[in-house]
Structures are given as structure tokens and as C-alpha cells.
Amino acid sequence: VTAPSASSGEVVWYVLGVTGKLPGEPADGLGDLPTLLPDRPLEAVARGDLRAVACRVPADLLDERATEDLDLVERLARGHDQVLRALARRTVVVPARLGSLYPSRQAVAHMLDGNRTALTAALERLSGRFEWGVKVYAEPAQERPAPRRLASDRPSGAAYLRRKQAEQEQRAAARRDSATIAAELHRAIAARAHAAVSRPQQDPRLSGRRAPMLLNGAYLVDRSGEEAFTAAVRQLAERHQPAGLRLELTGPWPPYSFAGLGA
Amino acid sequence: VSAVPGWHEDAWGQEEHWHAGGDASLADLLDRLLGSGVVLGGDITLAIADVDLVYISLRALIASVDTVLPARPQIEDLERGELT
Fold it and tell me: What region does A104 belong to: left with phi over 0, alpha with psi -120 to 50, or beta?
């Protein structure tokens, strides 16, 4: 990311996330991590057991122009995510929102003080857990693969029954309301997770996908349960594929969707 | 994995199960980095901190750059497909 020229030279603090004590302190090891902007090393602002991981950025980094510059937004989002991913591999982190700015180091420390209880609780809640995403698309009928036939052409009663059964399931699934299917899938996946949220469907112009999105879910999963979780999602993908549903799994993510500081 | 078309499992086999993240879609990133789940925000209120404004601006930008997208297929297409 190229830092826009700071005409005033004024600097503010961009907070990427909050952690507990960093591994290896007093050396914080932040110098080994990727940075949000070139030549803007990460710094830890410490208050008690809490650490805000931040970097100094030009004060005019995110003015009104930012929202009109898709390229800048994307580079910042990817930079922010890259830092968070690297950080989350080392320690538990409460991610901050994209573009979280504070006027001074003191203001960052004040934020830590003011949210100490909530941040400590969030760190505990997120410990040993990562986020996974599951999106469900309704595949356009014409692009759906034809029902699979057996390699041998020999008519077989079992194959016939299997095909009929698959066709029947396909019809039944297609008739059901897409919202019902999405809710069912979300519930089934959430049962395997510590916490779950269903987000609004993505705009096809941002996602670049034509197929209607039925579900845009995020799930907080224990590291110890990741294998069972992904296996369960895969099973659901296989079960619903004949009905034209496409499941996409992404992850693990830093726990962005579960960083709420609410009680 | 290849048995299920569209199945993405981009995490496994990488160091400590983490993928680099370079292949994450911008929509997925903005969902997370600006979504309601991330409430730790800054002192300074900036345009970019307003998720709605960002999405509206990006949409306007995309709409102005992109040519007309094909119409979104509807759920009914699935049912019609069943009749053929």
C-alpha cells in the first residue's frame, strides 16, 4: 500500500486489534509481522495486560476520497487482514474495524482503559477459536451438471432406483423456499460451531457472482473441532449439490465477525 | 474434494492451516472488516468507518466502471429446470 502524501505531516494512530500480553515480551516481536503500510512498523500500546497493536499513519489517509477509491479500500483491507492473520497465528486477538483511528498514543491507551472489562472478556471468548465462512449459492439450472450416470450402460435396478431417488430429492429441494433452505443449512452448520451469525447476502456486483446467494454465514469454531466442522460442511455440500446448491467454505479467518464487545 | 463442484477448501495443507488470504474476495473482506461484528472502532469518525457509505460508494463506482451485468438468475429458474 502506498501511503498518500501527508501534506500536513500530521500523524494519527491506526489500531488493528487488541491482544493480551504478546508472546516473548518484553520483545514484542511485532517487527516480524507484515505491516499495513510500508515503513510504518507495528507498535504495541500497553495498558495492564492489554496490548493495542497499532501503527502511525498520515492523518489524511482515510478522508472522504477513500470511499471513492476502490483500489485504496482494497489495499487497506488486504493489508489489515494480512496483519490480523499473522497476529492471530501468534496470539488471541480482538480485531478492530477497518480504519480505526485515534488521534494519539494516549487516546489508544484511553480506549484500552475504557474497554478493559469487555476486551478481556472478548479475548477469553475468542481464545482457541477461529472464524469460518459458509456461503450458499443457488446454481442456475442451465449450468448445473447433468445427473451422473453409471459408466456401464447395462441397466441395473439399483442404479435406476438411485437415479430416481436423486431426481426426487432434486425436485423436492427445488420446490422448497430458498429462505427455508438457507435457514436449515445455517442451523445445521451452527450446531457445529461455538457461535454463528448470518450476514446479509453480498451484492453480486461486489461478489462478482451471478448465482443468487442464499446464505452468507460466519461461524466461530474451536480449533479442536475444525476437522469435524469442515467435514460436516462438506457433507452438507454433497447432500445439497444435486439440488443445485453450491456451498463455499472459507477459513480459518481471524474472528472478525465475533469481536463484539457487548456483554 | 473435486467430487463436489464449487467446493472450496482453501485452508488445509497450508502452514498451520492458514492460507495467505490473498485469494479472499473483496466482498468477503469488507463483510468482515466493516461488518457489525467488529465493534472496536476508532475515536475519529471517518467516511470509511461508515459501512453503508463505503458500500454505496463502491457500488456507484463499480456501476460506473462495469458494463451492465446480466440479470440475476432467479430461484424460479431452478424449478423451471426441473420440468425439462
Answer: beta
Q: Which residues contact A11 (CB under 8 A, 6 or more apart)?
A: A56, A57, A58, A59
DSSP per-residue letters across A205-216: HHH---SPEEEE
Test mutation, B28, B66, B69, chain A, max A CBs within 10 A: B28
Secondary structure letter of residue B38 according to DSSP:
-
- Name the residue of chain A whose CA is nearest to B62's CA: A205
Does A198 touch chain B if contact means CB atoms closer than 8 Å? Answer: no
pTM of the model: 0.75
Of B36, B48, B79, the CB nearest to A175: B79
Helix, strand, coil percentages, rounded to 5, for chain B: 45, 0, 55
| Beta strands in A178-222, from DSSP E residues, in sequence order | 195-198, 213-222
Q: Is pLDDT of A199 > 90? A: no
